[in-house]
From TrEMBL, chain A:
The chain crosses the membrane at residues 20-41, 290-317, 337-363, 383-402, 432-452, 675-700, 728-748, 760-782. It holds the Pfam family MacB_PCD. Residues 295-411, 679-791 form the ABC3 transporter permease C-terminal domain. One of its GO terms (cellular component) is plasma membrane. This is ABC transporter permease. Keywords: Cell membrane, Membrane, Transmembrane, Transmembrane helix. The keyword Iron-sulfur does not apply. GO terms for molecular function: transmembrane transporter activity. It is a multi-pass membrane protein. Its main location: membrane. It is found in: Cell membrane. Residues 20-245, 442-631 form the MacB-like periplasmic core domain.
UniProtKB/TrEMBL annotation, chain B:
PROSITE patterns: ABC_TRANSPORTER_1, ABC_TRANSPORTER_2. SUPFAM superfamilies: P-loop containing nucleoside triphosphate hydrolases. GO terms for molecular function: ATP binding; ATP hydrolysis activity; transmembrane transporter activity. Keywords: ATP-binding, Nucleotide-binding, Transport. It comes from Pedobacter agri. GO terms for cellular component: membrane protein complex; plasma membrane. It comes from the Bacteria. This is ABC transporter ATP-binding protein. Residues 2-231 form the ABC transporter domain.
Amino acid sequence: MFKLNLKIAWRNLWKNKGYTFINVLGLSIGMASCILIFIFIRYEMSFDEGFKNEDRIFRITTNWTSPDGFEESQGVPKPAPAALRNDFKNQIEKVGAICQDGGIIKVKDDAGKEKIKTLEDIFYAEPEFFQIMSFEWLQGNPMQSLSQPNSVVLSKDMATRLFGDWNKAVGKIINYQNRDNFMVTGILQEMPQNSSFPLKIVVSYETFRKHPNERFDNWGNVSSNDECYFLLKDGVSIDEVRGALPKFSDKYFKRDNISKQEISAQSLGDIHYNENLGNFSSKTMSKKELYGLGIIGAFLMLTACINFINLATAQAVSRSKEVGVRKVMGSLRKQLVFQFLTETLTISVFAMLIACVLTEVALPGMRSLFQEEISFSIIQHPIIFVFMIGLVIVVSFLAGFYPAMVMSGFSPALAIKNKVTANAGGLSLRKVLVVVQFSITVVLIIGTLVVLKQMNYMREKPLGFNPSAIALVNVRNDSLSLIKYQILQDRISKIPGVLTTSFCRNPPSSSNNNETNFKYNGTEKANFQANTKIADENYFKTFGLTFVAGKAFSKSDTIKEVVVNETTLRKLNVVNFNDALGKKIKIFGKEGTLVGVVKDFNNLSLHEPISPIIITTIKDNYQNLAVKMDSKQIKSIMPQIEKIWNNTFPENYYRASFVDEDISQYYETERVMGVLFKVFAGIIIFISFIGLFGLISFVATQRTKEVAVRKVLGASTFELVKMLNGSFLLMVFIANLVAWPLAYLFVSKWLSTFTYRIDLSIWPFVLAMVISMLITLITVSLRSFKAARANTIDALKYE
Amino acid sequence: MIELKNIEKYYSNKGVKNYVLRHVSTTIKKGEFVSIMGPSGAGKSTLLNILGMLEEPTYGTYEFLGEDVTTLNERKRIELYRNHIGFVFQAYHLIDEMTVYENIEAPLLYKKIGGSERTSRIANLLDRFNIVAKKDLFPNQLSGGQQQLVGIARALAAQPSVILADEPTGNLQSAQAEEIMQLFQKLNQEDGITIIQVTHSEKNATYGNRILHIADGVIKDDVQLTGAKAI
């Protein structure tokens, strides 16, 4: 019976090729989107899995509560791990600290000649860290390999890269920062892509402890590079530890009246999803975004299913005879439902096959969009196959069940006499579904328009400084390099096309920030922290910062004069900026004279307001040489800079970036979101409008006789087209009305995450309406015009 | 085998009752070949639909094989369709997507007849109606008469005791119509199948052995024919 059903289904689908094509196309595109979204979500949810005792592993983090708000960091003070180990003996089995660092790695060949020079991230880790986290060791073990100072463990891929064969790496020496030599004592299995721990070079923590510049007793300093993990004792609840942490924090942190600092615990499973706290891999993905994607996928599928339901119920009339005949032959309603579901299933399976092809085609695009190695391998991840089967079944039921119920419910007496009318196929429901479908479409169109407009605004908003054609050339601040600063600057300044150069720690807008307390005019400590920019006297000219009062500071190697921005003075309640000139500001323990006030500029992403900023000179704090160039000559200047740099610092590793590119990196999430919106809006528009085309085709066929009669009565082609189009335009219009409030809620919520944002005007809404109505008009007219022009005789002669 | 008592059927429209059938009572015995005749709109088709349980009468009782079927649930009605009643339609109503063979096979599948039995029954019918060569054709590849032959073969496949035919020759040319009527007569006389047909044609009615004349929803005349046409 099933085989026969399948055969009949196939013939039926073949007979209505046009509708079948529309259905399969719509469903397969919807399914492909769903598969892509699913494999992305699967990938994102697979982070940091498979560690032994993973539900007992936690990370401690630091947070600050102050009048400015709540902030948190994945870093902890350096003495915290030892204190935790000591104070929680009964609850915690093991505590392991790990710290991220990075620098030049050099490897010599057997002859003692330099073979490899590369810039790499390294990690200082206690052996306990590896006892907590069950990474796979190919050679060595945590206790042996990481207890001694100057020992290093490499991942398999890094060992292969540095020494050719990882088997021969143990016992070899690598050089770090031209300073230390480490001996390889172990090999780790390489980390997968979906890991928050990109550990390739792990140096023993003892090495770190022996650093002359590092202090391990200072609770007042927190670097996000210092992470600490612990393993809870079996049978102990994490709440017990969490309950005791406030007391622990009180014991060690200095308290003051206005702010509070605390240690808290975060579970291993939360690390990848928590966007407020970072991790070593800098990959986080909030669950909210994943759910959002899932919802969009569900909506795409829903619109495709609506197409199917609409076309199937519209076609139902033409199949009523079959239903009647089958019923009097002794078919139960159940069997008819089953037969129709078989047809839907056939379409779904077919659509799924095409969807697989589409997925394969779209995958490289998605990989480059998210910059992740997402794989569509059913063998590697059988769950994807399960999802695909599930999708086919769900779609078959969602799309097939209602039409099957309608069709199988026809009364045989009416069906046989061809007295079932189009309305029996649920015209009102069809209208409702079209409205739902277009509401979703319009919401996405509005969303896309707003997202694109905001992106454009962010690109074009003046930031208060000029970030274009400025290269940041990384410099080291060890004593040897400091001596050569002047030579480097002089030589680079002489390259034709270089306009100005400035040594600085960070450009005016940077994701790398330092905030500190300060005293103004000898008074009490200011009740807010200032963002500090360390730079030389050419900083203002190089970045095009403008002064509202005073002037730039003069050349100095230490703090002598300072410049602040308008926000700083406003927060200090200074009304006339000129009054502030000449006042003293104490910062980093030294006093400087305020000589200038710069106009406010955006120092963070446009999500954030402008911070109070203090700019001053500290020569050994610079990290970059900013080089402002003639934008037409960038291509020819950059290689020259590299050459000069390599000649000046032959021991070091050249690294440069562009300020405007770094700034656009802030909006990577928004860029990805913009692309996603464009793609999904395109898909949903396509699906909705092929559905509409199918429906108008059907309506036109249904009303052929009516059209013919009206024509005989003297209706013009235009009037007929108008008649056929009318209800569709009305439906899309109503869909717009439904979509507007929903879209408003959604986009205004999204925009509120930006401090600097476009004003939400009515235009995206009106534009979405115009777009949707216009496409509807075109789609529908294509078909209705043909129907209106059809030969009257053909329609009437068979009556 | 069929007993109708006081069957009434009307449609209410804004409180006005439009009667289609009034006080219809009759008995049809096993082996009869009944023709229902009457002008258009007299209620012939409604009566046939009620006999075929496609419509329910407003009043009255209908007993089929001694069982009251006016209020039968779907499952029981379907059982009757599967085992006792075959339908033949004016417009043949073959399923367009199925071949001749499959059309005839469909009721057997619903009746859950085994594979070999099915094959032999269908072969038998194809053979009997001389349509073996057409078994793999689709309905739209056949002439009207051939389609109706398939329609009858389909109705007979489940070996029903009654065939209900609604103007079986209405769409056919006279030569083909005659062929179909002869077939009906043969089925009635040789196989003892009860046949009830609705027809406009006096000539077609003469193939049977009883005529019910209906006008304005009432049985005006019930004529027994003797000496039916020789085959």
